[in-house]
Amino acid sequence: MAVKKPPDPNAGTLHEGANDWFRQFLKHLEISMAETGQGLPSDADSAGCSLAAIRAVKHTLLDSGLDREQILGLFGRVALEDADVPKKLEWTAELNKRRFELIDGDIQGTLSREEQLELAGLTHLMRQWPTPDLCTTLSERIGVQVTRSVQQGAA
Fold first, then answer.
1. Which of 40, 118, 120, 122 is most exposed, with the fewest beta carbons within 10 Å of its own?
2. Residue predicted with more confidence, 155 or 76
């Protein structure tokens, strides 16, 4: 199954720091893969092997210093990259609405694993691309609601 890929002459070289990080990560991943693979049955199918590989990646990322929330956010971001989302993503009211729907489901304890991953990815994206206009609009709406509530209470 191992196929040696020839080097791409058009590919740039990695920055030294990134190269070192990737090499160290791969060493630890190989150890983690061996440990995880030992728990597989002899008749493991592709899905079982894939699951073991993802567990090894997760374990290696934990060892690298990331916490579970960061890993979930990164996996969610990667999952969204393959979804029907534009490459140059702008944080929109529609994405914000979807995130709030998922948060409500999370609070109620009704989210599926896929929805948990989607929520983590959307939260990660939201934190990377804050849109002042959306925040301003939200604060204006909240301000209007508070003002109306105070006025109605005074009446």
1. 40
2. 76
Phi, psi at 42, each rounded to 5°: -65, -25
At 83 the pLDDT is: 64
pLDDT at 147: 47
| pTM for the structure as a whole | 0.54
**Cα 5 to Cα 148: distance, rounded to the nearest angstrom:** 65
CB atoms within 10 A of CB 80: 19
Question: 97, 148, 95: which is closest to 126 by C-alpha?
Answer: 95
Report the Cα 125 to chain-centroid distance in Å: 8
Most confident by average pLDDT, 35-44, 80-89, 102-111: 102-111
Nearest 5°: phi and psi at 64? -80, -10
Report CA-CA distances (Å) from 88 to 39, 75, 85. 41, 18, 8
Secondary structure letter of residue 15 according to DSSP: P
Residues 6 or more apart whose Cβ sits within 8 Å of residue 64: 25, 28
